[in-house]
Amino acid sequence: MKKKLFALALAAALGLSLAACSGGAQPGAAATPAPAPAGDQQTPPADGAPAESDLAYVQGKGTLVVGITNFNPMDYPDDNGEWIGFDADMAKLFAESLGVEAEFIEINWDNKIMELETKGIDAVWNGMTLTAEVTSSMGTSEPYCLNGQVVVLPAGKAADYQTAESLSGLSFAVESGSAGAEQLDALEIPYTAMQTQANALMEVASGASDACVIDLLMAGAMIGEGTSYPDLTYTVQLNSEEYGVGFRRGSDLVDAFNTFWKEAYDAGTVMEVATTYGVQESIIEK
Q: Strand, helix or coil at 193?
């Protein structure tokens, strides 16, 4: 895969702020008790609004902490241990547009929502499918990439497993909490839960499992001729889906991201980086 270095100079810092409002007494209104001391007051935010600006929080600490897993071609370490990939490179550019640095942390995918809520991370940016669980638990960006869940198995067995109905006798490995796990649950097919999609691939390559379900984009990058798994292939595509970036619910980073992405797409940077990692055909036009 050809690697190139790209830099996008985004001149304007994105400044978003939350406006607080207060109300005074109305003529003729009945007297009300004196307010409690300031330290005792807790004014809940409006429904869906964050208690503080996430953008200000990130800029104040100087880092955008991005939760990821090892997922080629989206996020993976190079020979020097630096995180690269389509998502990783775009996350660095987004952080730069905010005036901060991107920091990558490998997370347990099952814990991604908790990691956001407890501020262990500021974003989930790892080829994340916009499932109902994700969109109801996070503030999510506009979708930016198309994907699907596919069945991977040894090439010598592929001809026998070309439909979803033919899969029931296979033993599966799948990343815990993933969109692939959801597909197998829907088909009522049992599986061994793995920590990452890369681990699921290794299970099949070693013969410990007959098959696995992983993202189509990962399959395109990691299996078949010229890859680390030349004897594996994929057959059935179980669904079609879209990727998005997750932030805390009500976070103003969602709008900041959507603005950044549109500008980067219009400037040609999104497609340049996508071409570097071979995912240009999956990018959603803006």
A: strand
Q: Please answer whether residues 69 and 109 qualify as being in contact, where contact means their C-beta atoms are separated by less than 8 angstroms.
A: yes
Tokens of 109: 């995918």
DSSP H or E run through 138? none
Nearest to 216 by CA among 143, 117, 278, 147: 147
DSSP letter for each residue of 42-57: --PPPTT--SS-HHHH
What global pTM score does this model have?
Answer: 0.75
pLDDT in tens, 44-101: 344 444 458 999 999 999 999 999 999 999 999 999 999 999 999 999 999 999 999 9
**Which residues, 6+ apart, have CB-to-CB distance to 89 below 8 Å?**
6, 273, 276, 277
Rounded distance between C-alpha atoms, residue 56 and residue 15, angstroms = 8
CA separation for the pair 284, 243 (Å, rounded): 10
Residues 6+ apart with CB under 8 A from 176: 108, 109, 110, 193, 194, 195
**Chain position carrying tokens 């985004």:** 10
Q: DSSP labels for 223-271?
A: BSTTSSBTTEEEEEE---EEEEEEE-TT-THHHHHHHHHHHHHHTTHHH
Rounded Cα gap, residues 44 and 156, in angstroms = 60
3-state secondary structure of 75: strand
Cβ atoms of residues 249 and 138 within 8 Å: yes
State how far the Cα of 218 lies from the Cα of 234, in Å rounded to an integer.
11
For strands 191-194 and 172-175, give the pairing: parallel
Domains and CATH numbers, the chain: 50-146+242-282 (3.40.190.10), 149-239 (3.40.190.10)
